[in-house]
Structures are given as C-alpha cells and as structure tokens.
Amino acid sequence: MTSVSAGYGALSVLRDVSLTVGDGEAVALVGANGAGKTTLVRTVCGLLRSRSGRIVKNGTDITATPAHDLARHGLAVVLENRRLFGELSVRENLFLAETVGRKVRGADLRFSWDEVTDLFPVVKERMASPVELLSGGQQQMVAIARALLLQPDLLIMDEPSTGLAPKVVKDILLVIKALRERGMGLLLIEQNVGIASEITDRAYVMSVGSIVHEIGPGEWQSFLTDERLVKAYLG
Amino acid sequence: MTLSLVLQALFAGVTNGIVYALVGMGLSAIFKGSRVINAMQGEFAVIGAMMTVLLMTKSGWPYAAAIAGGAVAGALVGAFIEVAFVRFMARKNASEDSFLLLTIGLALTLSASVLFFIGRDGHLLPPLGGEGVLIVLDAVIQFHALWLIAIGIGATLALRAFYHRTTVGLSMMAASIDADGAATTGINVGHMRTFTFVLGGLLGALGGILVTPLIGVDYQLGLNLTLKGFAAAVLGGLTNPLGAAVGGLTLGLVESLAIIGISSSYKDVVAFSVLIVIMILMPQGILGRAGRRGG
Predict the structure, then answer these.
(1) I need a labelling partner for A223 at 20 to 30 A (CA). Which of A90, A163, B5, B181 fits?
(2) B166 touching A, CB under 8 A?
(3) What is the pLDDT of residues A58-80, one digit of tens each?
(4) Which is nearest to B228 in space by CA: B201, B209, B204?
(5) A72, A100, A146, best to mutate vs chain B, most B CBs in 10 Å
(6) Is the dihedral of CA B144, B145, B150, B151 positive or negative?
C-alpha cells in the first residue's frame, strides 16, 4: 500500500502510510495500543474506505474492492477477536468460507477442506459444536481455518495471540510456521514484539497513525535489545 | 362455559395466532438481518392481500396464481424498500431510531396510497378449501382455518430449514451475527440485507392473504397486524423468527380465551396485559436465551 490515509468521520487515523509485503514474506506491524494498526487492517481489507492512497495486490489495484471480494485477489484476514459466527457450528462457519467465500477453483486450490481440517485436529473434533462453546484458542484455530479456505496467498492476522494462554499461543505459532513453509505470505499485527520477532522476517513500527520505524531483515535482535527504541515506540 | 365453546375459542386462537406469527416472523427476520424495527410489516400483509384481490377481480387470474402473485408483490416491495431507502441510510450509519421513523413513514404512506387508489372498502378473498366446515364436538371449524394452520406450520418449518439448510440462509444468519466477520468470509452483507427484506415481505404478504378470507382487507388492516406481529416477535425474543411463531400462537390463544372468559371488548386489554406480565417474568422472550440462538 502506498501513502494511504483513512479515518472515521472527522477523525483521521492513518496518515500517509506505505508498506509492502513481498511474495511469501512474513512482515509484522507492531505498535502500542491506539497506534492505528487495526484501522490499517480494516482499510486494507475493504471494511473501511481509504481517503487517499492506493492499495495494490499482485499488480491489481484493490483500493476500492469490498471486503467480500478480497478472496478473489488471494487475500484473507483473521480479524481481531476472530469475528466468528458464534451461534453457528464449526462446520457451518467453515462451510460458508468454502462455498460462499472461495473464489478460486480447481488447479488454483491451495488448501483443500481436508488439508485445512488436518492442520487443526481440534477443529475436526468439534465440527458439530457451536463455535461459542469452544475455548479461545480453539476459536482462533477455527478463524485461521476459515481464512485458509478462502485460498489466500497472503494472510493478514490482527492480534492472534491476544487473551490466549502461552501454551495455546505456541500452538498457533506452530501453525503459522507450517503455513510459512508452504509459501504463505503473512502480515502479522502484534502488540507483543516477542511473538512478532519469532515468526516474521522484518517489521514496521507504527505510532499515532504513521509508520515511524522499519525493522529490516536480521534487525529484530538489535531492535529488541535497544531499550530506548522499544520504549519510544511501544511504550 | 361449554367444552365446545372452549374448543371453538382455542381453534380461533390458533388461527389468529398463526397470522400474527407470520407477520411477526417477517418482522423478526428483518430485525435479525438488519436491526431495522419494521413498523410497516403489517403493510406487507395489505400489499399481498390487495394484490391477490386485484389479480383475481381485475385480471381474472385463477386463485392459486393470484396468491403467488400477491406473495411475490410483498417480496418485491420488501426488496424495493431495502434498495431504495435502507441501503443508503445504512451506508451513512443511520441509527435504529431513524430506521424506525423511516418505516413508520412508509407505513402511513402505503396505507394512504391504498385508501387513495383502491378506496375505503374492505375486500374479501374466497376461503381456501371452499365454504365447507368441520364439526368437532359441536365446534364449527372452517376448512379455510385448517388450510391456514397447515400453511402456517409449513411456512415455519420451511423458514427453519431455509436458515439452517441453505447456503443463502446460513449466509444471512452469519451476516446478522457478525457483519465484519461475514464480509471477510466472502459474504456480501448488503445483498443479505436485501434478502432479509424479501423474506420479511414474503411472510407478511402470506399472513395477509391467509387472513383476508376471515376478516377482509382494507387500508387499516396494516397497523393492526403490525402491532400484533410486533408483540408476537417481541414475545419470541425479536431476533428469532421461530420464536415469533411461538409468540404469535401465544398471543392468539390468550386473546381468544380472553374473549370467552371475559368479554370481546376487553380482548386487547387482557391480551396485552398478559404479554406485559410475560415480558416482566421472561424478559428474554418466551424461549429464553435459547430463543436468541439460531433461526
């Protein structure tokens, strides 16, 4: 995305934000609460119209693409708080992604139903349960599975670790690593830089609606050990 | 009070209750899918019934075709209202009270249009299944009432199957549970809201067509049915169309028992007093929390 600005009503949240995720690359977006990370996600995935700037995916301008058409461009998102259909069963949640959401057919299929459910044994066991009866970690797995069924080559995840026990976070990180090995691109929005540094190559640091710092490939360690930087940007 | 009188009242209660249920199911389908409290739900009944009357008398359509035409008219008007008004207001993040004002305005406009174009007179439709009656323990039951009950139950079951067994129905539920989650799963949330109004219009029209052989249709029928349908929907928990079916039956039965137990002039007083008591005791609706779940 290039110089994107966005906001709500009179409030402008994103100011002139530019960032890039390469093919199969894993990039993190870190920043304190209220930095505008979630607004950025909502803008990229078409839930919020940008006020200026361009968003391009594989050469196609998707700035004005509505959220429900993103899968056509190989983009899927796991929103903050997962946003599952709590009263519907796990199977129904996934079924909707598989039938309504999936826009590619046949040879372009990256994740079949069986592959996705094999990736998440928990999901398989609880197929018939209403999603709202699952634990937070299990729900996160369902949310990731639902996004994968849209056949993305770039997955955006907003705060997947929030509110989960360390053990569960570890399981989710394992899944993300497995996806990366299959060449999945990743834009990870995280408050927890420890987690972000573990699975991404580089990162953007956001503060008050702007990108204020970039962490290049191999620079995670030096960033994390520089207390002054961490304090300044992440509070 | 004789047994046959009670039986007669129960039967009348179920018959009216199913009409309230159909209107209420449409109302709660629309609320569930769009958060719009549709104060013109009863007008769908008037549109459906009047269209059926006109198609039969003016265009000479056979009854069955005219009924289908009336139901389609309700569905089309529902779609029109979403596309022409609700969609634009929703895009501007209109509040629930603005939507309420919109539908109240539409209700008055439609009622006035019927008065202007069709006139003050009431119209009847022939009873389904002919004029025949069934006598059970001295209670007189019209064939039409049996048809009405069968169609009402059929529509309720079909609605449930639609929500749980069809992709469109599931998508509509998903969009109503979490619009952002649905959009990012590939569901066109705007289209689902249009379908919701189509469904609401269809159910309302069906209720109007079925009740017309019993009480006739005129320009004033809409408001009355909206109130009864709204009570049915609230009793059922408002977001659950099947709850509205239970709510409608409850309302119909309480009403007709009030008629034989007290007096027909007090039936609304008694019926709505009972509703108030039910709502105080069961603020989540008759089905409780479970009633909020699913279709």
Answers:
(1) A163
(2) no
(3) 888 999 899 999 999 999 999 99
(4) B204
(5) A100
(6) positive
Q: Which residues from A are below 8 Å from B when comparing CB atoms?
A: 45-47, 66-71, 76-77, 79, 82-88, 92-93, 95-97, 99-103, 130, 146-147, 150
Q: Which of A149-158, A164-173, B99-108, B135-144 has the lowest mean pLDDT?
A: B135-144
Are A41 and A138 contained in the same domain? no
Same domain? A129 vs A86? yes
Residue with tokens 């408001």: B223
Mean pLDDT of chain A: 89
CA dihedral B214, B219, B220, B223 (to 10 degrees): 100
What are the tens digits of pLDDT across the range B97-113? 999 999 999 999 999 99
B3-292 fold:
ABC transporter involved in vitamin B12 uptake, BtuC (1.10.3470)
Chain A residues with beta carbon closer than 8 angstroms to that of B183:
46-47, 66-68
pLDDT value, residue B294:
47
CB contact under 8 A, B167 and A100: yes
Inter-chain Cβ pairs, chain A and chain B, closer than 8 A: 81
Read off the pLDDT of residues A188-223 as tens digits, 9 standing for 90 and up: 999 888 889 999 999 999 988 899 899 999 898 888
What ipTM score was computed for the predicted complex, to two decimals? 0.92
Is residue A169 domain-shared with residue A235, that is, in the same domain? no
CB hemisphere CA count around B87 (13 angstroms)? 17
Looking at the structure, do residues A124 and A162 belong to the same domain, yes or no?
yes
Exposure b/e, B156-181, CB count within 10 A at least 16 = b: beebbebbeeeeebbbbbbbbbbbbb
Q: Which domain does A82 fall in, by range?
A: 69-184
Which of B171, B173, B181 is nearest residue A100 as measured by Cβ atoms?
A: B171
Verify that A106 and A10 share a domain, yes or no. no
Provide the sign of the torsion angle of the four alpha carbons B145, B147, B148, B152, taken in this order: positive
Please tell me whether residues A55 and A134 are part of one structural domain. no
Does B294 lie at the interface with A, CB-CB under 8 angstroms? yes
Answer yes or no: is A194 within a domain.
no
**B:179-198 residues touching chain A, CB 8 A cutoff:** 180-189
Q: Cβ separation of B178 and A96 shorter than 8 Å? A: no
Instruction: State whether A42 and A78 are in the same domain.
Output: no
User: With contacts defined as CB-CB under 8 Å, which chain A residues touch B294?
Assistant: 87-88
Q: Residue B122 CB: number of other CB atoms within 10 A?
A: 14
> What pTM, to 2 d.p., does this model score?
0.89
